[in-house]
Amino acid sequence: MVAELFADLGVARDDFTLDFELQIGAGEVVALLGPNGAGKSTALRALAGLLRLTSGQISIAGRVVADPTSGVHLAPYERSIGVVFQDYLLFPHLTVLDNVAFGPLAQGCERSEARRRAAVWLARVGITDLANAKPRSVSGGQAQRVALARALATDPRVLLLDEPLAALDAKTHLLVRAELRRHLGDFPGATLLVTHDPIDATVLADRLVVIEQGRAVQQGLPHEVARRPRTDYVARLVGLNLLAGRGQGHRVLLPTGGSVELAESAFGDLYVAFRPAAVSIFVHRPDGSPRNLWSGRIATIEPHGEGVRVEIAGAPDRRSSVLAEITPAAVAELELVPGSEVWAAVKASDIEVYSGD
Amino acid sequence: MQRAAGRRGSDRPWQSRIPLLLAAPAALALLFLVLPLVGLVIRAPWSAAGPVLASTSALQALKLSMITATISTIIVVLIGVPLAWVLARPGLRGASLLRALITIPLVLPPVVGGVALFTVLGRSGLLGRPIYQLTGFAFPFTPYAVILAQVFVALPFLVLSVEGALRAADRRYEEAASTLGARPVTVFRRITLPLIGPGIAAGAVLAWARALGEFGATITFAGNFPGTTRTMPLEVYLALETDPGSALLLSVLLLGVSVAVLVLLRDRWVSRW
């Protein structure tokens, strides 16, 4: 299968280099996930043609739209893309209908035909009654729908969404996300969704690509990425403890000096991941035999959902730390405060081990 | 709704309090601007108004002023908006130097501007001589010279006003339009122009007013011929030497017409989304 969107993105600037590959098939939704400054927006702007590649290549539906080695750089209006910008950028001087009709009109449709198409899209996203409103008078959720309709009204081959839900309040966020999921499901082209929210990415995308400092550090199906993170950033996103080390049978040696006991044997470069809720905390050394028992000192105690997140510094070794999740009642019972000396225990069977290759 | 109303209500008393330290100089400034106009209206010999205002020379001058100022403004908009656009482009080399060049006519005494125009477009000027030798046409002492003089002094007002509007406008709208398939010319026409419309209107009004009042460059470069180059300001100046009363009346006439035009344009043009 030829990918609808193929991109080998190379953008070199003074203090930043973007360099990773991306392939998205027709009908596929890929989420580009990464911390602030990872290069997500730069990648989106390069794909849209708003920024020149310094190396690599981009092709859309088999047509090369950017290739600096042969001097190809098609302008955004020649690329067959649709973009939903972070703050939507609805044209303030045009009505909602004319915002959506702008694309078809720019592509050469008659005014009446462009308006008719725009009306169809407004109906599809459920805001027909706003047709004659000016953008300043519509709500955030409505503006998002207008922006989506406007981007799709040109029948693009590739849809690019830049943090499409970031500007919405929590309640609207859920509602609009569910709708967006439905519309992305109907869209026949390739979709790239830029986001820093792992839940949005998981709900909306078929596949995740995580970038950090301009490079792809992990990609795969959302549940794979969530279960087996490969960087601290991803581990924190999905809420797991992550350690990297070398397997020597039933034990993984960490480069920082500590070790983790496993239920099964494993060899080579490995990742070790476990849920904070799998970590038990004791004030006195417990008698039982959890395979992993580390002593440490409590660094931070923070509420997290219904429970409490406790960061234990000094476990498994002096230069590491692990997160534990316990109940508020346990915090009170054990009289835990930052600085408390504690024991952290993790059953070997609660530990996920996977290759680092 | 109630909360919004309440908030607005509580804002008002705070906003209405103007400290004396600002109120006094503000009132002084206002008086300084308005009093001369009041003086003009009070001291004008209204009994002689009929014959003076209906005189051929006054009407001729008024007509010439209106026509030339309007044509100048159109030219200023047509060439000034693109110049402002180029000037406002991010990353333009030598932008500050260009901007300094553009502001020169603002600080130059208009008479000097007229002399400068003469050196270029006079019958023996840098460009004027070849034009005269080829076509037998020379700008000085024609209505075209009036228009050139007005464009020269009025252009900076429009360029600076439009450039300011372009800088204040969010250029990402242009990017959004481009991703929707619009070519640069379409983006400029359908997105950029409407976004900076109020800035263009304000700049055009300033340019028109400046062109209407132009005196120094006109009298130097275009001369002072009734019917062809004698605009209202020249007419007023001439009248002042022979008949101060009619100079006052002509001034009031010019004042009235320009205020009327500005008020009409303001209602029609300055509508916001």
Determine and state the CATH class of chain B. Mainly Alpha
Domain module tally of chain B: 1
CATH superfamily of the largest domain in chain A: P-loop containing nucleotide triphosphate hydrolases
Give the H and E element order of chain A.
Answer: EEEHEEEEHHHEHEHEEHHEEEEEEHEE
Chain pair sharing the greatest interface: A-B, 24 and 19 residues
Number of strands of chain B: 0
- Give, in order, the helices and strands of chain B: HHHHHHHHHHHHHH
- Largest beta sheet of chain B, briefly? none
What are the main properties of this structure?
heterodimer; A: 357 residues; alpha+beta; Rossmann fold; OB fold (Dihydrolipoamide Acetyltransferase, E2P); 2 domains; 6-stranded mixed beta sheet; 5-stranded antiparallel beta sheet; 19 strands; 25% helix; elongated; B: 273 residues; mainly alpha; MetI-like fold; 14 helices; 79% helix; disordered N terminus
Topology readout:
The complex is a heterodimer of chains A (357) and B (273).
Chain A lengths: L4 E9 L2 E9 L4 E5 L6 H9 L6 E6 L2 E5 L4 E2 L7 E4 L11 H11 L4 H14 L15 H13 L5 E5 L7 H17 L3 E6 L2 H7 L2 E6 L2 E6 L1 H6 L4 H7 L2 E13 L5 E16 L4 E4 L9 E13 L2 E7 L7 E6 L1 H6 L7 E6 L5 E4 L2
Parallel strand pairs in A: 3-9, 3-10, 7-8, 8-9
Antiparallel strand pairs in A: 1-2, 1-4, 4-5, 5-6, 10-11, 12-13, 13-19, 14-18, 15-16, 15-18, 16-17
Helix pairs in contact in A: 2-3, 2-4, 3-4, 4-5
Chain B lengths: L1 H15 L3 H24 L5 H6 L1 H33 L6 H13 L2 H12 L6 H8 L7 H26 L3 H8 L4 H12 L1 H17 L2 H6 L10 H11 L1 H26 L4
